[in-house]
Design goal:
Layout: E1 3-13, E2 22-29, E3 39-41, H1 44-53, H2 58-71, E4 73-82, H3 83-88
Antiparallel strand pairs: 1-2, 1-4, 2-3
C-alpha cells in the first residue's frame, strides 16, 4: 500500500452533441509512470460525493466542485493518497 503524491485535476467537459456536460477527474502523479485514467462524473452532487470518497472533507469537496463549475478547470495540489484508494475510485489502472 504505497502512498502516491500528485495533483488532482478536475475539468468541466461540455460533452458532444446530444450529451450532457460532465466533470472529468484525473490524478496526475508528480513522479513516475502510472497508468491513470479519468473518472467521469455526470453532475455536481456526484462530483462532491467522489471527492469525499477520496478523503476530502465535505466543505473542501464543495469548494473544489464549485470552483470547477465556475472556472472550468481546477487543480488540487499536493494530493497524497494510497494507491489502493485511487484504484478503488477508478483513477488508477
Amino acid at each position: 500500500m504505497a502512498k502516491l503524491t500528485g495533483n488532482l485535476q478536475i475539468k468541466l467537459c461540455p460533452g458532444k452533441e446530444g450529451e450532457q456536460p460532465y466533470f472529468e477527474v484525473v490524478f496526475v502523479p508528480y513522479a513516475g509512470r502510472l497508468n491513470t485514467k479519468p473518472a467521469k462524473v455526470n453532475n455536481l452532487d456526484d462530483l462532491v460525493a467522489l471527492l469525499t470518497e477520496l478523503k476530502l472533507s465535505e466543505d473542501e469537496a464543495q469548494k473544489w466542485a464549485g470552483r470547477s463549475r465556475s472556472q472550468g478547470v481546477v487543480i488540487i495540489p499536493s494530493f497524497e493518497r494510497t494507491d489502493s484508494l485511487l484504484k478503488e475510485m477508478g483513477l488508477l489502472v
